[in-house]
Amino acid sequence: MAERRSGWWAGVLLALFGLGGTAATAQTDDDLEHAMIRAYEAAGAPALGLVTGDASGQTALLVRGRHSTRDAMPVAPDARWHIGSNAKAMTATLALVLAENGVLALDDPLTAFFPDLSLHPDLAEVPFAALLEHRSGLGANLSPGQMLDARRSRLSLPEQRADLAARWLARAPAQAPGRFVYSNLGYIIAGAAMEARTGADWFDLMQTHVFDPLDIHSAGLGAPAGDAPEGHRSFLGLMLRPEPAESAEADNPLVMGPAGTLHLSLTDHARFLASHLPGGPLLSEVSRARLFTTPDPEAELPYAFGWARVQHPVGGKVWQHAGSNTLWFSIARIDPETGRAAVVVANAATASVEAALRDLLDAALPPPPR
Fold first, then answer.
1. Which of 285, 271, 307 is nearest to 91 (CA)?
2. For the chain, which end, N or C, has fewer CB atoms within 10 Å of the first or last residue's CB respectively?
């Protein structure tokens, strides 16, 4: 859907670059409960969720609200939520695991992943890692026509991604490789590269190498169906109506999976974040260090593998990312120094939702001192 392309991009940037302006100090279950009540009342979304965790997994879990504006069913603690571009850290984690297993090398050039394609000379030697750091030279998104084609395509998702790789990598880069430009397209091509190297579907690779080892069983593609909250469409800051998961308009085309069409439960999201904390499962400390290494630490927004290092207005620096397909909103924060992480989610994506989620995130995981 072409119109969601710009909205999704704008939603991601709003929360990726922006942080809350007040420091909260919630320390107890009662504090978190009160913070959730305040956030829910301020957001105006049908439902909000929060999970905090450490290297062992979940430490606190709160949900509030109902499935949708037309469904009074209360949201369950094990509900599945769409996480948008917070899937990028998962795709990056898959790449690190495959690198640990000797399947690929992060610094291998793109031509090593696509030996049968005619890559543009300015892209052929770009390292694979640059796709995950948004420094490949590729543009931000698929074209509107390619978004529409993806919805209509009868090809498998790996076949679609392979076709996109052939098209985009043959073109001149949109900007000089090495320059930071946030790129959903780059993550789609990263998924295609891992599929080309392994012969397996990106989601199957995620399941085998990331989700199963972390005991994550709720992850899936697209808007969560069945007994799950529904995302809500909005226009000019006003929440309009729920979008059933069965609708083609409930999410971006699934070919964009490596960039952000995943859903999962809050408990499982905490299990994933545990792998990014010191002493956590799955990743070696060497890979974890690479995960949080930015090519340009002095950049205005240092970006590593699926995480941005951001300065909080009233505190120190944290790693943060956000995701939205304009029907859902999710913000994740991780602080390796304290060994804590948190995720906040909502099934709507308005300015009031974003502001409320930021405040809730600050209450759950206050920014460190300057």
1. 307
2. C
